[in-house]
Amino acid sequence: MLWNYGVVLDAGSSGTRVHIYKWLKSDKARKNHGSLHKLPEVSTDKKWTKKTHPGISTFGTHPHDVGPDHLDELFKHALKYVPKDEVANTPLFLLATAGMRILPDLQRKSVLEEVCAYARKSTKFQLPDCDLHVQVIPGETEGLYGWIAANYLLGGFDDPEEHDHGKNHHTYGFLDMGGASAQIAFAPNETEAERHANDLTLLRLRTLNGTPLEYKVFVTTWLGFGVNQARQRYVMQLLESSINAKEYPDPCLPTNAAIMVSDDGKVIESGSGKKGHKLVGTGVFTECLTKSFPLLEKEKECLDAPCLINGQHTPAIDFDVNHFVGVSEYYHTTHEIFKMAAKDDEEYDFKTYQKAVDEFCSKSWKDIEKGIKNKTWGKIDEQTAQEVCFKSSWLINVLHDGIGVPRVGLENLNNNVTKVKVGGKHGSKKGFINPFQAVNKINDVEVSWTLGKMVLYAASEVPPNTTDALAVGFGANVPGIPSNFQVPGGSHVPYMSQADSEWHDRLFSENSRRIPGFLIFTLIVVMICYFTCCGRERRHAARQKIGDMLGRGGSSDRQSGSLLHRRRRPFLDKLFGRGGNIQSYERVLEDGDTPNDFELGSFISDDEEHSDSSEGSARLGRTSGWATPQLKETGTPTFDPSRGDVVAQGSGLGLAPPGVFANAIDRDGLMSRTDSRERMARSRAGSPKRGKFGVLDA
């Protein structure tokens, strides 16, 4: 295959969206590109994206349902477009944002663990490190990924000479605003970067030729400063200003528009039957701007100057070189209704924009309802029309009074600002002279932080051009690899090591590392056939033949009962059950081994009644099988011709306790032993079983 693939799930508060990306494998990319001083070219397709509702944070109390009820649909969608042969090599990421951040720790952990378990169980995507691939990312990380995506699409990384903003600066700033939080990310000018070095994040990428690219970026997030959270704070402020009023005049609603809100500032849906407070619009946008301004909380003490919003430190922004792109609410609030922003390539102009908002908000609500039905402003609904006045006031306050973006149309820009081409080979060719531009897509590719995540991962896949090259990723702005450095993904785990149900694919692969598995499998099959298909006599014959093949070369070894021979094949004895059988015991008697050559098996009884801890009789009462000689512990030895006096035989082998029997070399013992041999030899000669298996082949 020519392509690498990656899957990222953006788990937001309202839903989860799956994104699929692809890029050429490094060796192919190096052959296809004229210039290798570029990042891997990551691409996607409209149909590769799919969203499902609600967010995974709603599964906090029942995490086991997040797989079948939420993720399953997204995984199936991804598997439709990732080639089957590449699934096992495709990394999977689920990165959660605002919704999961507010869950209790235990619920958040349970949901993430269930996500990982379900992904590993139901797919074969690469998921080597759940802590890294499935996690809740902080707002700063989300902002950094967005900064990467914007600069990648605009061409600031690959074509710096075409994006020279002056002062050796060629990257763009990034602004993002959602419902709960807002982020900012930018590379300060050289003076500010040196002054606030400890506040910056070191980002390291790698081009196709293995050369590292390093950037020092400032990133921060303002929690509670997203449009929905800001709107709630605004409504609560409005309610506090007139306690127990029947109606509350709201300049941030179109004229005569009316809504019901709860004590905590949330809108109550009509028909719900819930009681609340009635807000009635006055449609005075300039007053809306004034009343929403305090929400910036610029009066908070700045402990580490300079600060922008909420007393949070931010290095000074040099708008001569820092040109920003705004996504999410920055785009939707300027593009959903107002004609001036109907096209992506129209530049943001503060004077024109404020005039359009003021005209809309001063309209009567009845006229706006008619316009919605007639689609005067495109496909918008009543809720969007009710919210746009406050959203516009909040966006203007954040941009110009909070961040300090110059008001284009009212304030003169520095003459040193140059006109640059946005995008290079990635983006559309358009002028970008203003310090702020709202965008949604560049060259039909959505500016999403998920793209930034995958660009970083693709760069990490490129082999370095030196052996001492540092890893791709981001962390504290210190030399080398800081302790908090985060790599784009876990170590790649070859598919052969993943535990899955397709064991036969791994077992019979051509890979030489899997050959031992095949041998073990073959041995298991042979053993099953051996024990199930062969009778007792055939198994005995097989054992004898295997024994003959394994080293009976010398004349002494041909003695069927040689102890030396038995010690050379302990594995076969254990495997085929030879230890402790009666045939082995009889051959010991035939060979005439000395008493010291005979050893009992290593069996130790678990029953304390059959053990003895005394030194003089350590083996007394132990048995290694049903054919072990029985011992008489008391009385005097008697000779019984009918049974060959097994007790006397045991005495001759040194198995009796001290003092019970006479020495093995006295005459009575020797006669008993000789007589017993003769009896046993005669009994063997007439045994059809022994003749059949050829034990007495001497």
Automatic annotation (TrEMBL):
Q: Which PROSITE patterns match?
A: GDA1_CD39_NTPASE (PS01238)
Entry's Gene Ontology cellular component terms: Golgi apparatus; membrane
A biological process term (GO) from this entry = CTP metabolic process
Against InterPro entries, the record matches this protein to: GDA1_CD39_NTPase
Q: Where is the active site?
A: 142 (proton acceptor)
- Stored Gene3D superfamilies: 3.30.420.40, Exopolyphosphatase. Domain 2
- Pfam families reported in the protein's UniProt record: GDA1_CD39 (PF01150)
What terms describe the molecular function in GO for this protein? apyrase activity; ATP binding; GDP phosphatase activity; ribonucleoside triphosphate phosphatase activity; UDP phosphatase activity
User: Which CDD domains does this chain map to?
Assistant: ASKHA_NBD_YND1-like
Q: Where is the composition biased (Basic and acidic residues)?
A: 666-681
Composition-biased stretches, type Polar residues, lie in 625-639
Lineage: superkingdom: Eukaryota
Question: Which residue ranges does the record annotate as region Disordered?
Answer: 599-643, 666-698
UniProt-listed Enzyme Commission number(s): 3.6.1.5
**Mind listing the UniProt keywords for this protein, alphabetically?**
ATP-binding, Hydrolase, Membrane, Nucleotide-binding, Transmembrane, Transmembrane helix
Q: Any transmembrane segments, and where?
A: 515-535
Record family assignment = Belongs to the GDA1/CD39 NTPase family.
Protein name in the entry: Golgi apyrase
Annotated source species: Didymosphaeria variabile
The gene for this chain is: YND1
